[in-house]
Design goal:
Number of strands: 16
Number of domains: 2
CATH superfamily of the largest domain: Bira Bifunctional Protein, Domain 2
Bound molecules: 4-amino-1,4-dioxobutan-2-aminium adenosine-5'-monophosphate, magnesium ion
Helix content: 25-40%
Radius of gyration: 26 Å
Shape: elongated
Strand order of the largest sheet: 6-10-11-16-15-14-13-12
Number of helices: 13
CATH class of the largest domain: Alpha Beta
CATH topology of the largest domain: BirA Bifunctional Protein, domain 2
Distance between the termini: 28 Å
């Protein structure tokens, strides 16, 4: 590409604006947010996606730089070279005094992102352009930083990252929400048996836990849940750590530490991007995140949760009864109304949980836990795994599963089985928590939900 900067490396706006002193002569590339032509000079606000703030570019007349700058339009891509100088104007410490302005890509007037606030619904219909807005730019920078923070948190604690397959032949959760994978005209022949998109990397990562020790998988999961809710996506990301020689208590400790660390990271390291959500999405966001980050989570058994809910004065749409799953309204009551902070609900009825969860001594409950958080409800689901071969086989049998279909999984309970435990943290649910965004469609670059796969 043409480079008017004559050999100077391009600098990101974030680095320019956070530098302790102006960096002298620089080259910046980005997209025009606004242009103001004052005849003697032109102001151009340039955003390069690296941070919330725009860089103010000033081009003095008469000059070629001014002629190009004054003719720019919102959305155009530009390359500007010049000196960073102290800004006499309000609103920014420094500005870029342009020597050269190059129009890299013009943008016509029908650009949908004119300078005004657009609704989330409208922006969803232009998902390919919404990262150019302040709100979605901030959101996807937070998304990136949260993913990095998860890897760092687990890496520092000695967890190894395992890349579990996306195409699988087993249904981990047993909920029948699988998307089938077919190879064009070859249909099911390709793999020799039916294949699906994974609903969870858990079964695969467990095997690595029983070889490498503490591990995790972090990637996409797919569920054909027909519920068109604001908390479910057909394609979402999950981080699934698995603790070797671990039990449910350690599992809850790790989940709590991870969620609290991520809330703290947003508050301390991502304050500028977070401010968009505090201002425009939820005024109480920072207070909520401070509670999540700095107060221990409540911990109650499922039986206690049912007790609290049965005694609650609140009117629920769905019945509360021991043995039934908790609905979103119940989760939110516990965390928003009753405890006013995150709650871990542990030891769930065996009858509503998958085959791999460890059966408790009462034989009515399993060593499972869900982490519930304000506004989102369930953000984490996990359990201690059934490590006893005999118990596992009889659980599979009573659920009508064929242990031969899971021969490799069952093998792990034959060859040096050990207690282990893990969980899945829904990455989009985490992003909803830390940004206050209430619709999962707005924390995914290109959301996939029933009836919707535009991009
Ligand atoms: O509770 P779930 O179904 O647990 C599992 O999949 C286990 N195999 C995890 C494990 O133990 N390794 O899902 C875990 C989390 C949920 O708590 C929720 O946050 C998220 O994944 N999740 C979804 N997020 C968005 N859209 C969906 N359709 C989701 N389904 C689950
Ligand atoms: Mg769950």
């Amino acid at each position: 590409m043409q480079n008017q900067g004559q050999g100077i490396a391009p600098v990101r706006v974030k680095d320019l604006l956070s530098a302790a002193a102006p960096l002298g002569r620089v080259l910046v590339r980005g997209w025009v947010r606004t242009v103001r032509d004052h005849k003697d000079f032109a102001f151009v606000e340039v955003n390069d996606g690296s941070c919330l703030k725009n860089l103010q570019v000033v081009a003095d007349a008469p000059s070629a730089a001014y002629d190009t700058a004054a003719a720019l339009s919102t959305g155009a891509a530009v390359e500007v070279a010049g000196d960073m100088v102290a800004s006499p104007g309000k609103g920014q410490d420094w500005e870029l005094r342009a020597e050269t302005v190059v129009l890299v890509g013009a943008c016509p007037e029908n650009y949908p992102l004119q300078k005004k606030r657009h609704s989330d619904e409208f922006l969803r219909s232009i998902a390919h352009l919404r990262p150019r807005t302040n709100k979605y730019g901030a959101l996807f920078r937070i998304r990136s930083a949260m993913a990095m923070a998860i890897h760092q948190f687990l890496g520092e604690r000695g967890f190894l990252w395992v890349h579990t397959p996306i195409i699988t032949s087993s249904d981990c959760e047993g909920a029948g929400e699988l998307f089938e994978v077919r190879a064009g005209s070859r249909g099911e022949d390709f793999f020799g048996k039916p294949a699906y998109l994974t609903v969870s990397g858990q079964l695969a990562v467990e095997m690595f836990c029983l070889s490498l020790g503490n591990v995790y998988t972090f990637g996409p999961a797919f569920r054909a849940e027909d519920s068109n809710t604001s908390r479910h996506a057909a394609e979402f990301w999950m981080v699934e750590p698995e603790i070797a020689f671990g039990d449910l208590a350690q599992d809850m400790d790790l989940a709590e530490a991870l969620v609290r660390h991520l809330a703290e990271t947003v508050l301390t390291d991502l304050a500028e991007d977070l401010s968009v959500f505090t201002r425009f999405v939820d005024k109480t966001l920072e207070a909520t995140l401070a509670t999540v980050a700095r107060e221990p989570f409540a911990r109650i058994s499922y039986t206690e949760a049912v007790d609290i809910l049965s005694r609650a004065m609140a009117k629920f749409q769905f019945p509360v009864e021991w043995g039934r799953d908790l609905q979103s309204e119940h989760e939110r009551f516990l965390t928003e109304v009753h405890f006013k902070k995150p709650v871990i609900v542990h030891d769930w009825p065996l009858s509503i949980k998958p085959f791999y969860m460890r059966v408790n001594d009462d034989e009515k409950t399993v060593a499972a836990m869900d982490v519930l958080v304000p506004r989102v409800g369930e953000i984490v689901g996990g359990s201690q795994r059934e490590e006893r071969l005999g118990v596992l086989l009889s659980r599979m049998e009573s659920l009508g599963m064929n242990p031969e279909d899971y021969g490799w999984y069952v093998d792990s309970r034959r060859f040096g089985s050990v207690p282990h435990a893990g969980f899945g943290l829904g990455f989009e649910r985490l992003l909803m928590l830390v940004t206050g965004v209430t619709n999962i469609r707005d924390v995914v670059p290109y959301p996939r939900t029933p009836g919707s796969i535009e991009f």
